[in-house]
Amino acid sequence: MLPDTDELAEVLLDLAVPHEDISELVRMGRRVTDDPELLRFLEASVEELVRDMGEVGAGVDLPELDWASGPLQRCFPAYVFVAALPHTRAHHRERGIPDDVSRRTLADLGRNMALHRRRYGLPGVNAPRWLTHHFRGELYQLGRLQFERTRHGERTGRMMASAGLDATPGTPCLNLHIPDFLGPLSAAACDRSLALAGEFFARHYPEEKYRAALCHSWLLDPQLKRYLPEDSHIVRFQERFRIAREDTEPADTEPVRFVFGNPDQPIDTLPRRTAVERAVGDHLRAGGHWYVGHGWFAW
User: Fold this and answer.
1) 5, 9, 120: which is closest to 73 by C-alpha?
2) What are the distances in angstroms from CA 259 to CA 118, 180, 215, 219?
3) Which candidate among 4, 117, 252, 294 keeps its CA 20 to 30 Å from the CA of 240?
4) 112, 129 in Cβ contact below 8 A?
5) pLDDT tens track, the chain, 299 positions
C-alpha cells in the first residue's frame, strides 16, 4: 500500500511535506508496513477514502487510529493519503485534470502539516477530514483560491432561487476557500483564479452547471471594514460578495487561528505587527467578537 523507502521520500516531497518531517515519516512508514494490524487499518482507511471517488457530499470521515498518542497517531493520515494517491491520480487522469493543477491541489497535505508544526511544534496532519476533499476529486486549487465542488443546501438553494438564479436545493455550486502561505489576497490574484476556475470546470466537469459561488469565512465579517482601509485586499475581497446570512454565534478562534496560528493564544499576547493583526487583536481586547461571514455571487 505504501511506496518503498526511497520512493516514499520522493512522494512526500512532491506533496510539499515539510523537509524536517520527511525522514521521520519514512522511518515510521516501515513500522506501518511491517505491522499487520496497522496495515489492515491503512487498507480500510484508504478503501473508505476512495469509495465513490469524485462524488460530492459523500461525507467521508477517516477513522482515527486507536493507538497510543504520539507521532505515529498524529501522522497516520499522511500514510492514508499517500496510499490513496494512485486512485486520486487515476481519477484526475480520467477527468483530464492538468498535472500542475493536480500537483498544487494535493500539495495541501504539506501545507496542513506545516500548519500543524507551526501550531504545535510537532509533526502531524492538521484537519485530515478537510484533506479528504482534495484526494477525492472534490476540491481543486486554481491560482490563489481553492474551489470545492458541492451542492446547495435547503437554505442557500431557496435564497439563490429568490434572487432570481436558476439554483435550487441540490443543484451544483462552488465553495471558495483561501489557503495559507500563498501571499496577499490581491484583486488581480482573485480575478485570475476566478478566470481559471471558469475555464477549468467548464472543461473538466461540463455536466455540472454552476450558477453561484459561495464563501463561508471570517474574512467576510463586515466588522473588518471598521479597521481596514477601503482599498485593502480583504475589503475588496468582501465586496465581491452579496451577504447570504449573518451568524449570531461568535467565532473568535477563527481569525486567531488563521492570523496567528494558534487559536488558544491569549488575547493579550496577540502581536500588532500588521493591519490585520491589529484589527483582530484590538477588536477582541475591546470586548468585541468576530463572526463567520456567508457570502455569494452569481457565477
Assistant:
1) 120
2) 12, 9, 18, 11
3) 252
4) no
5) 899 888 999 999 999 999 999 999 999 999 999 999 999 999 999 999 999 999 998 778 888 887 766 899 999 999 999 999 999 999 999 999 999 999 999 999 999 999 999 989 999 999 999 999 999 999 999 999 999 999 988 888 888 888 888 888 888 999 999 999 999 999 999 999 999 999 999 999 999 999 899 999 999 999 999 999 999 999 999 999 998 888 999 999 999 999 998 889 999 999 999 999 999 999 999 999 999 999 999 98
Q: Is 146 in contact with 189 (CB distance < 8 Å)?
A: no
End-to-end CA distance of the chain: 40
What letter does residue 169 receive in the DSSP assignment?
A: T
Q: Residue 34: is it exposed, middle or buried by C-beta count within 10 angstroms (0-12/13-18/19+)?
A: exposed
**Alpha-carbon distance 235 to 222, whole Å?**
9
In angstroms, the CA 82 to CA 90 distance is 14
pTM: 0.94
The radius of gyration computed from the CA coordinates of the chain, to the nearest angstrom, equals: 20
Cα separation, 67 vs 102, whole angstroms: 32
Give the DSSP letter of residue 292. -
According to DSSP, residue 286 is labeled T
Distance from chain centroid for Cα 205: 20
> How many residues are present in the chain?
299
Q: Which amino acid is at 203?
A: R
Phi and psi, residue 149, nearest 5°: -70, 125
Contact (CB, 8 A) for 15 and 107 = yes
- Strands of the 172-177 sheet, one edge to the other: 139-142, 145-151, 172-177, 212-217, 293-298, 242-246
Distance of CA 207 to the CA centre of its chain: 24
